[in-house]
Design goal:
CATH class of the largest domain: Mainly Beta
CATH superfamily of the largest domain: YVTN repeat-like/Quinoprotein amine dehydrogenase
Distance between the termini: 54 Å
Helix content: under 10%
Number of domains: 2
Shape: globular
Largest sheet: 10 strands, antiparallel
Radius of gyration: 24 Å
Number of helices: 3
Oligomer: single chain
Number of strands: 43
Structural class: mainly beta
C-alpha cells in the first residue's frame, strides 16, 4: 500500500514580504593574504550542550549491541546489480582539504562549474580547484568576507551550489550561535571562476527578536530565486531539545548576482500543522535544471522513533513578483523511518553520531520527487539510508531501505544523473563505516523507468577510510559530519561530483571530492574485490569477509609466507556483494600467514593475517 495524502488538518503560517538586506562587500577572496586567511588554526569548538543526545537516541543506542559479540551474520547488500541497471564509475577524485584543518564536525559540501572549477566547503573553510584537481587556493569563511564583517568569529555550516542558468556560484554559511550575533551570510560569485569577485550579503539570523538563533541551513535554487531554510533554536539550548520553528527564506538571485546595493527577501515563518511547528525543511532541487514558477520542500518528523508522516511544501511565484504563495500538506509513506542508531568504528569504544532522520536532500524530476534520509530499520542493526519516491499527481510515496548487514550508512545526498536513454536516473552518496571499515564515502545509482520497479546499482566506495575518527568528543561517540554534497556537472549529462568525509591516517575528519560517471557499458572489475579478516591478529577464531564485485566462483586458501598451501578454506559460488564465513585456527602455530581469493588459478586479491 503506497502512502497517501492525509486531509482535514489545520495548517498555519505567515509570509513577510520585501525584507531588505544591504550589500556587505564585493571581494576577491584570494586578495586576502594566506597568512591572514585564518584557516590553519581556526576550528569550531562546539558548546558543551551541542553533543547531548535525545532520549530517543539513547534508547536506540542502549538496545544496539556490537555485532561481533555474538554469532556473526553475513554481509549481503539488499540490492543487486541487474541487467537494466547502471553502475557508477569513479573518475577524478582527490583530497578536498589538502592543507589546513577541518572543524568538527565535517559539514562538507561542494559545487562544480561548467568550466570545471570545483569549490569544496567544509565547516569553516573554502578550498578551490581547477578541472584537473590543481589546488587554486584556500580561505576561511570569515576571510571570504574580508573586513566587511570584522566581528565574524564563529562561521560554520557552509552550503554551496552552482547555478546553471547564471553559470555562477552561490555560497551560504552561518555566523554565530546566539541571538546577539546570528546571521545568514550569502555570497554570489560574479563568474564561474571562484577566484574572481563575490558579492556578499547578510540575512538576520534572529528576524523576530528574542533569545533565538538560526542553525543548519539547507539551500536550493529555482530559475529566479535562492531558497534558504534554517531551524530557529533557543539560546544555549541543544538542537534536539530546544527547536522553536523552521523558516523558509526566498531570496532574489538577480540582485545578488548583479551586486546591487539592496537584496530583497520574502520570509515564510510560523509554519505549523495542528499547532505543532514543523521541524527542518529541505529544499527540493529541480532537475535537470532549476524549476520555474514553483519550488517544493519536504519535512518529516526527524526525532520520532518511528513515523510515516511526510510534509510536502510548495512555494509559488518569484520573490520579485511580490506575490509569493505557500501551501503545505501532510502525506503518508509506505515504509516507516526513524532516528538512526549510532555507528561503530573498527576500534572498540569509538562510535560515530548519525543525528536524526530529517530529510537531507531531494530532487524534482518530471512528476516525481526523490528524497533521502538517514534512518533506522526495524529488525536491522546498522544505520541505513531511506530513499523514497513521491508521485506528485497521486501524492503517493514508495520508499526503499538501502542497507548492509555490517556497514552503517548515514548522511545521504541525492542528485539527478540522467542522460539520453537513461532519463530518470539519480545518484546517491553517503558516508559508510563498520567494525571492519574505517569511515569513508560511497555512492550508488538508482533508476526508475516510467514507474517500473526501482533498480539500484552496487554500492561503490569512492573513498575508503585510512583510520578511525577520534577528534573531539571526549566520550565514545564522535561527531561524524552533518551532511554530504552531490551535484550534476550540468553541461555533461551522466556526470556528477560529490563531497564526502573519511577517517584520515591522523584520526581526523577528512574531506574527499570525486567525479562519478554513469556508464551502462561498464562491467564490475573482479580485481577490485577484497578479503578482510576480523580480528587480526587472530586468537582462537576469525571471520573472513569477501567483498566481491560480480557473481562468480572462487577459492579461498591459506598459505604460509613461503607460498605453501596449508588449507582450502572455501571453494564455490559467491554472489556480487559481501559475504562472510567463520575460520577456526585449529593447530596452526603463531605467526604470519596469507589468505588468497582465487578465480580459477588466478589470484583476485589477498591479505596477511597474524595468528597469536
Amino acid at each position: 500500500m503506497l502512502g497517501t495524502s492525509v486531509v482535514g488538518q489545520k495548517v498555519d503560517y505567515k509570509i513577510h514580504k520585501n525584507i531588505v538586506s544591504k550589500k556587505l562587500c564585493t571581494v576577491n577572496p584570494l586578495d586576502i593574504p594566506e597568512d591572514k586567511a585564518g584557516f590553519v588554526k581556526y576550528e569550531w569548538e562546539a558548546p558543551e550542550h551541542y553533543d547531548q543526545q535525545s532520549e530517543v537516541k539513547k534508547l536506540i543506542d542502549s538496545k544496539r549491541k556490537r555485532r561481533f559479540d555474538g554469532q556473526f551474520q553475513g554481509t549481503l547488500d539488499k540490492y543487486r546489480q541487474s541487467a537494466e541497471d547502471v553502475r557508477p564509475t569513479v573518475g577524478d577524485n582527490y583530497d578536498g582539504l589538502p592543507i589546513g584543518g577541518a572543524g568538527v564536525p565535517n559539514d562538507n559540501n561542494m559545487a562544480i562549474s561548467n568550466d570545471g572549477f570545483v569549490v569544496s566547503v567544509v565547516n569553516s573553510t573554502v578550498t578551490m580547484f581547477d578541472k584537473d584537481g590543481t589546488h587554486l587556493g584556500i580561505r576561511s569563511l570569515r576571510a571570504f568576507v574580508a573586513g566587511a564583517l570584522p566581528s565574524l568569529d564563529r562561521t560554520y555550516d557552509p552550503k554551496i551550489t552552482f547555478d546553471p542558468i547564471e553559470e555562477k556560484f552561490i555560497l551560504v554559511f552561518l555566523q554565530g550561535s546566539l541571538s546577539s550575533d546570528s546571521r545568514i551570510i550569502i555570497g554570489f560569485s560574479t563568474t564561474q571562476d571562484p577566484r574572481d569577485a563575490w558579492n556578499f550579503y547578510a540575512l538576520e539570523g534572529t528576524p523576530f527578536g528574542g533569545p533565538y538563533w538560526s542553525d543548519y541551513p539547507i539551500i536550493g535554487i529555482s530559475k529566479r530565486d535562492l531558497f534558504v531554510t534554517v531551524n530557529i533554536l533557543l539560546d544555549n539550548g541543544s538542537w534536539q531539545d530546544d527547536f522553536q520553528q523552521s523558516l523558509i527564506w526566498q531570496v532574489d538571485k538577480e540582485s545578488g548576482f548583479n551586486g546591487e546595493d539592496t537584496l530583497y527577501q520574502t520570509l515564510i515563518s510560523d509554519i505549523n500543522y495542528n499547532d505543532e511547528f514543523i521541524w527542518s525543511i529541505c529544499a527540493v532541487q529541480g532537475a535537470p535544471e532549476p524549476d520555474d514558477g514553483e519550488m517544493y520542500f519536504l519535512s518529516v518528523r526527524p526525532g520520532d522513533l518511528s513515523s510515516t508522516d511526510v510534509f510536502l511544501h510548495k512555494v509559488t511565484n518569484s520573490q520579485r513578483s511580490n506575490d509569493t504563495k505557500y501551501e503545505v500538506e501532510l502525506l503518508s509513506t509506505d515504509k516507516a523511518y526513524g532516528v538512526p542508531p549510532s555507528a561503530y568504528q573498527p576500534e572498540v569504544g569509538f562510535r560515530l553520531q548519525t543525528n536524526d532522520a530529517r530529510v537531507l536532500s531531494a530532487i524534482h524530476y518530471a512528476d516525481q520527487i526523490q528524497y533521502v534520509q538517514t534512518t533506522s530499520v526495524e529488525g536491522h542493526d546498522p544505520s541505513s539510508i531511506y530513499h523514497a519516491i513521491l508521485d506528485l499527481p497521486s501524492k503517493s510515496i514508495h520508499a526503499n531501505y538501502i542497507t548492509n548487514d555490517t556497514l552503517d550508512y548515514a548522511y545521504p545526498s541525492i542528485c539527478y544523473i540522467g542522460r539520453e536513454g537513461v532519463t530518470g536516473a539519480s545518484a546517491i552518496t553517503f558516508s559508510h563505516v563498520s567494525e571492519l571499515d574505517f569511515p569513508g564515502t560511497s555512492v550508488l545509482f538508482h533508476n526508475n523507468f516510467d514507474g517500473q520497479e526501482s533498480l539500484y546499482s552496487d554500492v561503490v566506495k569512492v573513498k575508503e577510510g585510512e583510520n578511525i575518527i577520534d577528534r573531539f568528543v571526549p566520550d565514545s561517540i564522535e561527531r561524524w559530519g552533518d551532511y554530504t554534497g552531490i551535484q550534476p556537472k550540468y553541461n555533461e549529462p551522466g556526470v556528477v561530483w560529490l563531497s564526502g568525509s573519511f577517517g584520515k591516517e591522523t584520526r581526523f575528519n577528512g574531506v574527499w571530492v570525486g567525479e562519478v560517471r554513469m556508464n551502462t557499458d561498464l562491467q564490475p572489475d573482479i580485481e577490485d574485490s577484497r578479503v578482510i579478516v576480523y580480528p587480526n591478529p587472530m586468537a582462537e577464531s576469525m571471520y573472513i569477509r569477501l567483498d566481491i564485485l560480480k557473481t562468480t566462483s572462487v577459492k579461498v586458501n591459506l598459505y604460509d609466507l613461503q607460498g605453501k598451501l596449508l588449507a582450502e578454506l572455501y571453494e564455490g559460488p559467491v554472489e556480487a556483494g559481501s559475504q562472510s564465513f567463520y575460520f577456526d585456527r585449529g593447530a596452526y602455530r603463531p605467526g604470519m600467514y596469507i589468505i588468497r581469493m582465487l578465480d580459477g588459478e588466478s589470484e583476485i586479491c589477498s591479505t596477511k593475517v597474524a595468528i597469536d
